Amino acid sequence: MAKASGTKTAGAKGDAERYSKFVEAAAHQHSVWGLYRDGWALGKDEDGQPVFPLWPGKDMAETCAVGPWKGFEPEEIPVEDLLDQLLPQLARDKVGASVAPPSGDAPPTPSIAKLISDLEDALGNRDEDVD
């Protein structure tokens, strides 16, 4: 039992780090990446609910274009479009966001509200750093 608990904690720590790096990269680059082929690629969270996978870089998205996403191509999404259009639409459609999902693993799935808030905070901090 202790081993399983430790493994879960290690996984949660990795998810938190992956999420943090995703937010930092999105703020720095002002873009994220999805997979597209006649429509956007969707996945499922651990509960089987639909999620929209997002990656901080083209290479990461491209690496995950396997299995059910084979034939999908990385597509850049400007962070402004993400915040103003895509994330609000996902919330209305009751679709979550998965952040930097690795192939075959359950990805971090923050709430849409948390993702918007964290991205806006990171962009605000970034703008302050530039001034």
- Would you tell me the overall average pLDDT? 84
Strand order of the largest sheet: 2-3-5
| CATH class (first level) name | Alpha Beta
N-to-C series of helices and strands: HEEEHEHEH
Low-confidence stretches: 1-10
Quick one: how many beta strands? 5
CATH architecture: 3-Layer(aba) Sandwich
How many separate structural domains? 1
Return Rg in Å. Answer: 15 Å
Q: What best-fitting shape do the alpha-carbon axes yield?
A: globular
Largest sheet: 3 strands, mixed
Helix content: 40-55%
Tally of individual helices: 4
Quote the CATH topology: Trna Endonuclease, Chain: A, domain 1
CATH superfamily: Uncharacterised protein PF11572, DUF3234
Structure classification: alpha+beta
First-to-last CA distance: 51 Å
Share of β-strand residues: 15-25%
